[in-house]
Specification:
heterodimer; A: alpha/beta; Spore Coat Polysaccharide Biosynthesis Protein SpsA, Chain A; 8 helices; 7 strands; globular; B: mainly alpha; 0% strand; elongated
Chain lengths: 227, 136
């Protein structure tokens, strides 16, 4: 069984070494690939100096394009499972084992969720998470406990489908669309770390437009999409 | 606003939404771009269904005929969209230029190193396969 860990990285010079060294020292059973999304800092140089397995995108594509590059790599090299691991260190590879186990029970996508056994707190940060969860519930009738979690595992069929289509970003609206189409999605309890270094991409305006996009896509557009 | 204009606004909005959904269905349109047009169509429908909103806004600014308010708003929104599109085009041109230059330099580099290695192994078999050639 071949498992690929995809690490999309944009300006992560402060984190990438720690994340990859953790991977290669403790989890040798998984292959990994770093997708450098046209970083302007030393991310690429650090990776090459350490002889990491890295794909350098010549221009910045954004998370969707970068992650899809990783899935194309997985599709090309016939991997059975691919999992997204953020380069800022908030995801821990320790949970990949549980996620694979779950996938082998017959699931196409397994989400590393913070709220399977834990309760979701009532605070401003979880407001968007709750709204998307509600939208998915309305649209598909199913419960996704942590739709905004970036740690997701895809099986071979999903790798191929995500790698070769447009409008297949690694985002909750795609998950909701596939759920609606009968794809089997499961969640596994994980714990996430706060980002240790560097700054988050999200601010208020970006969050608002992200929420707008998710709501319109999940509640309206997904009803008309064809797989 | 006349009834005919209100109906026209609604018909055009619904029609444009239908076309967009079809394009998304055929995988020819990115959802990111559809969001703007959906919001735009929804606003037109709101203006057509609740004309008092438009009339109140028109008197506030001092426009005599509310229909001009509708036109003004559409023109403003489209101006903003056009400006944004122009920014995106220049970004795209930059991206294409970067890619073409990178591709050309890589190819040149590959040819150079190929020539070097074939100089060294002049005795050995003919040229290696055309790995560097673009497959598309």
């Amino acid at each position: 069984m071949k498992v690929l860990v995809i690490i999309p990285a944009y300006n992560e010079e402060e984190n990438i070494e720690r994340v990859v060294n953790d991977m290669t020292s403790q989890y040798r059973e998984y292959d990994y690939v770093i997708i450098n999304d046209g970083s302007k800092d030393q991310t690429s140089a650090i990776c090459h100096a350490n002889h990491y397995n890295i794909v350098d995108l010549p221009v910045n594509l954004g998370l969707e394009g970068a992650f899809q590059t990783g899935l194309k790599y997985a599709d090309l090299h016939d991997y059975d499972y691919a999992v997204q691991l953020d380069a800022d260190g908030q995801h821990s590879p320790v949970y990949i084992k549980d996620m694979i186990q779950k996938a082998q029970e017959g699931y196409d996508i397994v989400i590393g969720s913070r709220f399977v056994t834990e309760k979701k707190p009532w605070n401003a940060r979880m407001l968007g998470n709750r709204m998307i969860e509600a939208a998915i519930r309305i649209s598909t009738g199913k419960k996704i406990t942590d739709p905004t979690s970036g740690m997701r595992l895809y099986n071979r069929n999903m790798i191929h489908e995500f790698a070769s289509n447009i409008n297949y970003g690694p985002e909750p609206d795609t998950i909701s669309f596939l759920l609606k189409q009968g794809v089997a999605v499961a969640s596994v309890q994980v714990t996430m770390q706060e980002r240790i270094a560097g700054k988050s991409y999200l601010n208020f305006a970006r969050s608002a437009s992200y929420m707008m996009r998710m709501m319109i896509a999940i509640l309206l557009i997904n009803n008309f999409r064809k797989r | 606003m006349s009834i005919a204009l209100r109906i026209l606004l609604i018909v055009v909005s619904v029609f444009s939404m239908v076309i967009m959904m079809r394009k998304i269905r055929q995988s020819k349109f990115q959802i990111e771009y559809a969001i703007f047009w959906i919001l735009f169509a929804l606003i037109l429908i709101v203006m057509a269904v609740f004309p008092t909103l438009t009339i109140r806004l028109a008197t506030l600014i001092g426009i005599q005929s509310p229909v001009n308010m509708v036109f003004l708003m559409i023109i403003f929104v489209l101006m903003a969209k056009l400006f944004y599109l122009n920014i995106q085009i220049s970004h795209l041109e930059y991206t294409v230029k970067e890619l073409v230059q990178k591709l050309a330099l890589n190819e040149h580099h590959a040819l150079d190193s190929e020539a070097e290695s074939s100089d060294k192994e002049a005795v050995s078999a003919p040229e290696s396969s055309d790995e560097t050639e673009n497959t598309h």
